[in-house]
Design goal:
The chain is α+β, with helices and mostly antiparallel strands. The strands form three sheets. Strands 8, 9, 10, 11, 12 and 13 form a six-stranded antiparallel β-sheet that branches. Strands 4-7-5-6 form a four-stranded antiparallel β-sheet, covered by helices on one side. Among the domains are: 8-104, Rossmann fold (3-Layer(aba) Sandwich), CATH 3.40.50; 132-197, Dna Ligase, domain 1, CATH 3.30.1490. The chain has twelve helices and 13 strands.
């Protein structure tokens, strides 16, 4: 790989997650909320770039002033919400496009489609990509299960990410529990609910990088060795964010074993189809389920997944021979290249 040229980089992040210059003396729990932001900022600086960490909450003017004053070659986008709403992150990227400012990660159209889990599933189903059967339960309406939707069902927010509102109780086996869980999502998360068929099988994560030419990273797997046998093996909020619970269940994520060349090619081809069907760009992670009889289902497509050093996406890239600094360099080049592709 050629030596990267030194650039002016504005790293966009939530104002509460602007990292300190050093994490010396801080515990893992104290660092966890801003670990991605710290890893990206520090690594880019070590690469020789002129880096400006910009905290944003609800003021687009901050971004405009940074663009006008710093004149960044690229904005490295780590924003996951705006005005406290996750679905607004696509509007921030739209603003960057209006400013003709190159940025990393997914374009606003892809973000919008992927955020709405029902819409993304309908698009994928049209393209004959296997997804679980599903139904949307809007807020303020009585819960009525379509007859075609059979138990067990997995109930979650239609638009929220990061396992918000997901627990072991999210898998339901009768209409009473379905109603109870849908109402829980409406009440506590404040969004419409989605119920989809629960697919028993292996939890696989597959990273994809690129705009036109796509690179599929090695298949990663989440394992729950100490979880009780009758518990659904799902990535709940506690599984993702509770360090003590992770240790209790022996949570492990690593290169998937027993994936032969034929199955790997099938997964790679499917992930590229998903990526293109949803109009994604930059990078994304596909959450898949592999059933005991070898069927593969898309559960969710996640544009702009966690970029922390040592987490699934970066570890998978490392396994493919892409070091962390190389990964960030690649994402920057893709961001700049995506903007140039759309210019007159």
């Amino acid at each position: 790989m050629s030596k990267p040229r030194k650039m002016r980089v504005v790293v966009l992040m939530h104002e509460d997650l602007v990292p300190p210059d050093s994490i010396k003396g801080l515990s893992e729990e104290e660092v966890a909320p801003f670990k991605t932001e710290f890893d990206v900022v520090v690594t880019l600086r070590e690469m020789g770039h002129q880096v400006h960490a910009l905290g944003v909450s609800d003021d687009l003017g901050l971004i405009r002033r940074a663009i006008e004053q710093i004149k960044p070659h690229v904005c490295f986008n780590l924003l996951e919400e705006f005005h406290g709403l996750g679905v607004y992150d696509s509007h921030v990227v739209s603003y960057l496009e209006l400013m003709r400012q190159p940025y990393t990660g997914c374009n606003p159209r892809g973000l919008m489609l992927a955020h709405n889990k029902a819409m993304s599933k309908m698009i994928c189903r049209y393209h004959r990509i296997p997804v679980p059967k599903f139904a949307v339960f809007p807020m303020g309406r009585k819960v009525r299960r379509p007859k075609k939707l059979e138990f067990p069902l997995f109930v979650k927010s239609l638009t929220e990410e990061g396992s918000v509102g997901i627990s072991q109780a999210s898998v339901v086996y009768d209409d009473d529990k379905l109603t109870e869980r849908v109402e829980f999502i409406h009440r506590t998360v404040g969004t419409d609910a989605l119920a989809e068929g629960y697919i028993e099988g292996r939890e696989l994560y597959v990273g994809v990088i690129g705009n036109d030419r796509l690179q599929v990273l090695p298949v990663w797997e989440m394992l729950f060795p100490n979880l009780r046998d009758d518990a659904p093996k799902i990535a709940t909020g506690k599984v993702k964010w509770d360090a003590r619970y992770q240790k209790k269940i022996g949570l492990d994520t690593k290169l998937a074993s027993d994936i032969d060349d034929g199955l790997r090619r099938k997964i790679n081809h499917l992930c590229k189809r998903i990526y293109r069907s949803l109009g994604l760009s930059g990078y994304a992670r596909m959450d898949l389920r592999l059933t005991p009889d070898g069927r593969i289902y898309l559960i969710e497509a996640n544009p702009n997944p966690n970029l922390s050093y040592g987490e699934d996406f970066a570890e998978s890239a490392e396994t493919a021979g892409i070091g962390y600094d190389q990964l960030l360099h690649k994402l920057i080049n893709l961001g700049i290249g995506y903007r140039l592709r759309g210019q007159a």
